[in-house]
# Entry
Amino acid sequence: MAGIVTVTAKDAYGNVATGYLGTVHFTSTDANAVLPANYKFTAANAGTHTFSVTSRAPALRQSELVTR
# Structure
């Protein structure tokens, strides 16, 4: 199952953190999932970036995004 995931960084007030320059890391409980590599946000992202993910499981399993 292929899909698109949009990650939006938000500040403590729920606003889009347009200046976010951190790195995101994806993990999943699906050992066969094809996840994006670590990604470092740039100023051009303005706090939002879209990624492609693929799960080989018949249903979406738990995924987690960690910022660094």
